[in-house]
C-alpha cells in the first residue's frame, strides 16, 4: 500500500510505503541513525534491503531524555567525521524520538540533506514519521527547537511492531484513535470491532491513520489551521505529562486521558452526547489505555495550559470533537467552564 503526499508550496512530493520495504536503492553515502535496542532487533532486516555505495551506522542512546541538542551535536560530528556531503542520505531507524531528531539534523547539516524515515514504533508509523515536524527538547519544554523538513520517503513495516512492548503499542493506538475521532467516523467504527493482532488489520490501521495525516499536512503543512486538530487531547496531555515529570505515562497514554478530558469539555458545551463520550472511552479502554487522572488543584492545572507553547496570545486553543468524526477549534471557552469540567476529575 502507498500514500502520496504532495506539498503545494514546496514542490516536494513523497510516498509513504506500507509493508513494501523490499529494496531501498540510494546513491552516495548513507548514514543510518538508530539506537542499540532497535539496531539489535531489526538492523539486519534493513541492511538486507539497502543498496548503496557506502553506509555507516550512528548509534544514539535510547530515550526521550536524549532528544536534545547534545545528541544532535554528536550525530553531526559523526556525519562530518565520515565526510557526508550534500548528495548523502540519512536514514532514521527507530521510534519518534529518532525520526524527530534525525529530521532536524538532516535539515541543518550543510543547510539540508535528504533523509528517509523508517519508523519502528506504532506511534511513529501512524503519526511522527509523516508530516515533516522535526525537533528536539530543551529545558524550556518539549519540541521547542526544530524545523519543518520533509523526508524523501517513509517506510512503515508492521513486522517491526512485533517486538514492541504492549504499552508502547497501545500508546500508538491512542494517536490513531485521535485521528478517527476528529476526522473519520468510519475508521472509529472499524476500530471498535477490529482485532489489531491480525497483520492485515494492523496494516489497515496504519494506512488509514497515515492517510488522514497526509491529507492534513497537504492542506496545512505549517499548522496555520487544520493541522492543529491533530493536537486533540494534547492540551490536557501536556499538562499531565508535565505534572508527572514525563515518568508515569507514555505520551500516547497521556493523550488517551487528554482525549477523555477534552470530551468531558465537549459534553459540557453540548458538542458531544454522553453516549458518544462513553463510546470513545470504551474504545480507549479496549486497548488498555488510561482514561482518568486525578487533578489535585484545578486552578493550577488550568494555569498550566498557558505555559503550553501552542497557546497563542494567551488564549487557550481547545480542539474538541463535535460528535465522533468531526472536530472544531475553540479559543473562546470561558475559564469557569474549563474549571467546572476539570473539577469532575478531582
Ligand atoms: N513529529 C511529529 O509529528 C511527532 C508526532 C508525534 C510524536 N512525536 C514525537 O515522537 C516521540 C515519541 O515517539 P515513540 O513513541 O516512537 O517513542 P520512542 O522513539 O522513544 O520509542 C519508544 C521505545 O520503543 C523502542 N522501540 C522502537 N522500535 C521498537 C521495536 N520495533 N521493538 C521494540 N522496541 C522498539 C525505543 O527504543 C524506545 O525505547 C516523542 O518525542 C514525540 O514528541 C513527533
Ligand atoms: Zn501526540
TrEMBL record:
InterPro entries in the record: Dehydroquinate_synthase (IPR050071), DHQ_synth_AroB (IPR016037), DHQ_synth_fam (IPR030963), DHQS/DOIS_N (IPR030960), DHQS_C (IPR056179)
EC identifiers of the protein: 4.2.3.4
Binding sites annotated in the UniProt record for Zn(2+): 175, 234, 251
Necessary cofactors: NAD(+); Co(2+); Zn(2+)
Catalytic activity, as annotated: 7-phospho-2-dehydro-3-deoxy-D-arabino-heptonate = 3-dehydroquinate + phosphate
Protein keywords: Amino-acid biosynthesis, Aromatic amino acid biosynthesis, Cobalt, Cytoplasm, Lyase, Metal-binding, NAD, Nucleotide-binding, Zinc
GO annotation, biological process: amino acid biosynthetic process; aromatic amino acid family biosynthetic process; chorismate biosynthetic process
GO CC, one annotated term: cytoplasm
Gene Ontology MF terms in the entry: 3-dehydroquinate synthase activity; metal ion binding; nucleotide binding
Residues covered by the 3-dehydroquinate synthase C-terminal domain: 172-311
SUPFAM superfamilies membership: Dehydroquinate synthase-like
UniProt remark on cofactor binding: Binds 1 divalent metal cation per subunit. Can use either Co(2+) or Zn(2+).
Subcellular location, principal: cytoplasm
Pathway where this protein functions: Metabolic intermediate biosynthesis; chorismate biosynthesis; chorismate from D-erythrose 4-phosphate and phosphoenolpyruvate: step 2/7
All residue ranges annotated as the 3-dehydroquinate synthase N-terminal domain in the record: 58-170
Domain of life of the native organism: Bacteria
NCBIfam families per UniProt: aroB (TIGR01357)
Job description of the protein: Catalyzes the conversion of 3-deoxy-D-arabino-heptulosonate 7-phosphate (DAHP) to dehydroquinate (DHQ).
Similarity section: Belongs to the sugar phosphate cyclases superfamily. Dehydroquinate synthase family.
Protein name: 3-dehydroquinate synthase
Gene: aroB
Amino acid at each position: 500500500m502507498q500514500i502520496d503526499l504532495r506539498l503545494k508550496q514546496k514542490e516536494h512530493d513523497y510516498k509513504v510505503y506500507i509493508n513494501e520495504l523490499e529494496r531501498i536503492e540510494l546513491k552516495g553515502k548513507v548514514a543510518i541513525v538508530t539506537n542499540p535496542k532497535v539496531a539489535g532487533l531489526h538492523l539486519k532486516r534493513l541492511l538486507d534491503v539497502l543498496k548503496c555505495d557506502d553506509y555507516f551506522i550512528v548509534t544514539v542512546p535510547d530515550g526521550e531524555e536524549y532528544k536534545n541538542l547534545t545528541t544532535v551535536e554528536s550525530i553531526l560530528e559523526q556525519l562530518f567525521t565520515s565526510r557526508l556531503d550534500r548528495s548523502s542520505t540519512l536514514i532514521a531507524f527507530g521510534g519518534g524520538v529518532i525520526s524527530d531528531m534525525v529530521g532536524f539534523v538532516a535539515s541543518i547539516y550543510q543547510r539540508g540533506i535528504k533523509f528517509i524515515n523508517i519508523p519502528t514504533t506504532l506511534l511513529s508509523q501512524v503519526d511522527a514519521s509523516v508530516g515533516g515536524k522535526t525537533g528536539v527538547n530543551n529545558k524550556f519544554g518539549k519540541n521547542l527547537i526544530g524545523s519543518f523538513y520533509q523526508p524523501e520517503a517513509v517506510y512503515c513495516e508492521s513486522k517491526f511492531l512485533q517486538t514492541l512492548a504492549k504499552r508502547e503499542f497501545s500508546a500508538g493506538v491512542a494517536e490513531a484513535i485521535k485521528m478517527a475521532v476528529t476526522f473519520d467516523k468510519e475508521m472509529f467504527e472499524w476500530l471498535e470491532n477490529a482485532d489489531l493482532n491480525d497483520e492485515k488489520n494492523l496494516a489497515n490501521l496504519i494506512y488509514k491513520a497515515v492517510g488522514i495525516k497526509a491529507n492534513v499536512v497537504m492542506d496545512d503543512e505549517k499548522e496555520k489551521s487544520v493541522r492543529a486538530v491533530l493536537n486533540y487531547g494534547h492540551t490536557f496531555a501536556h499538562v499531565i505529562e508535565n505534572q508527572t515529570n514525563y515518568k508515569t505515562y507514555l505520551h500516547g497514554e497521556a493523550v488517551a486521558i487528554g482525549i477523555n478530558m477534552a470530551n468531558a469539555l465537549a459534553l459540557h458545551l453540548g458538542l458531544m452526547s454522553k453516549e458518544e463520550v462513553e463510546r470513545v472511552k470504551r474504545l480507549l479502554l479496549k486497548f488498555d489505555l488510561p482514561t482518568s487522572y486525578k487533578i489535585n488543584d484545578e486552578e493550577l492545572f488550568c494555569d498550566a495550559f498557558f505555559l503550553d507553547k501552542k497557546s497563542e496570545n494567551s488564549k487557550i486553543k481547545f480542539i474538541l470533537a463535535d460528535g465522533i468524526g468531526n472536530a472544531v477549534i475553540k479559543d473562546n471557552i470561558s475559564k469557569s467552564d474549563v474549571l467546572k469540567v476539570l473539577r469532575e476529575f478531582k
